User: What shape does this take?
Amino acid sequence: MLLSGEEIKKNLGKDIIIEPFRPSQLNPNSYNLRLSNELLVYDTDTLDMKAQNPVKHLTIPESGLLLEANKLYLGRTVEYTKTDRFVPMLEGRSSVGRLGLFIHVTAGFGDFKLEFDGDIYLYMLVLSTDKIEALTYKYKTLFEQSERLVKISAAVYDKDERALQETGLMIQPEGTGIYIKDANGKLALIGVGVEETDAEGNKKTVIKLTADNIKLEGLVTANGNFKISEDGSIEANNAKIKGYVYSVFKQIEKSDAELLEAGDYLKPAVYKLKTNLYVDASSCEVVLPVTKEYEGARVLIMDSHFIKTRTVYPPTNIRTEDGSPIVSGLFAQSATNRVFRADLLTIDAGCIELILQNIVCEESAKSSFITAYKTFLASNPSDTHLQHVLYKSALLQLFLKSHLLHDLL
Assistant: This one.
């Protein structure tokens, strides 16, 4: 477990000794140690582990020291450190790592023990052969931690330390966000678990997408009531749509209608509609689907043979797949007493619009009652007074609110 900056500060003078200590060098989860101005370099190309290899002492001037590529430098920290409880770990900063400078070579822990006491020695190797100025402002990896925020980000900077682009992860008690930001501060964000308050004052968690363009790939669903398929089709339950809606109008042969029977010059081709419900079905027979999925669907069927010529074109016929009649321009599934119905619609030229309703035709109330009354008469042929009383009573009970009452009385 890494100690936070606050924990390091709390343990100062007790389990952690850093001399001299500067609050400005304390990070969210580390402390910045400074390099002493004394360096050692080997004065030979051949290094022997059993021998005392000759070294040369270097002093870093105030103006700085130009480090040579492919050369090993030995250094130590300005600060004296001691801990009897924790294991110190030495890591280089990313700002110098990006320059090709190794702060330590295979000695990140420096053989530390819990009783470690003394200076920390650094083994620095410069690998980059590029000029320092060419790399100092390009990339930075940042880690920030406080009581309410953890932020990990990678950024591209210009030579004036201005961020050109930054992307990262932010974690807060209110939610987590993945973001990318350009030099002008324009933000693209995916916020997960962001808490917001609605108009009634209720707090709700949301997923927030913020960008100039949002691209969703694959199948998109919402609570089983909304679906966008990969082919671009949209399915929605209880949708409320306002404004102009463009519907594809196709020749039935080029639509997705199912060909049930092929046609010739003696008989029309028979097609069952699927999702393309606006079709030119001239001289064909159209079968309307009758299922719950199509309830409320609008169907527009056209016979485009408007110009009469010497050639006789057969009409366009329309029927339902289950044989239920079409009522008042509606093909139906449940009970209705409407009398305007047909088993087959025929159009010779023009368009017809049909709407699927969940109704199925039944006998009219008048014919149903008369049939039942005739059955009663047949079973009670002698009691005419009783027949008359029951007839009137039945009428009052069954047709008091019916438009058929006047006709029957």
User: Anything to note?
Assistant: Confidence is low (pLDDT under 50) at residues 110-114, 131-136, 361-366, 398-409.
